[in-house]
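Following the same procedure, the fold was encoded as tokens, giving this record:
***
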Amino acid sequence: MPSATAQQTIGPYWHLLEDPQVADLTRFGAPGPAITLQGRLFDGAGAPVGDACIELWQADPSPSELFPGFGRSGTNADGWFRFRTLKPGPIRGCGNATEAPHLALAIHARGLTRPLFTRVYFAADALNETDPLLSLIDDRARRATLIAEPDGDHTWRLDIRLQGARETVFIVF
């Protein structure tokens, strides 16, 4: 009888989390205004999740050999994750609607058999008011769970809460 093997919900590339360069989307010399996105991942009880993987995807600027448009960051024991990337600009969405500058995130963590998807928008961006996805969220407090706040020079912070009070808005595809 065959033996059972462990399920890998993130696939065979978990080892990439050990290389911090994978979280630096500017590592190949991508030109443009660089930013840092950082934050903490919390579980439903408010405890930091220290063994998760956060994936970052972005459509702007377009991926190239100097800019992969994708990165991964592991969370440390205190739940912190950190990315270095280029500041995104607005993009054309469905029906030619303009989407506010944003980053897409996928969260892989213990207890999740599938990743959770969310977005990161930037505080005070005028396009946030008309962004098609943000406009679907009537509750301002819920909408705020997707808005990164300035946290130093060219640094933005967004904490992610998997459940409970101030739970982050997640997107179902």
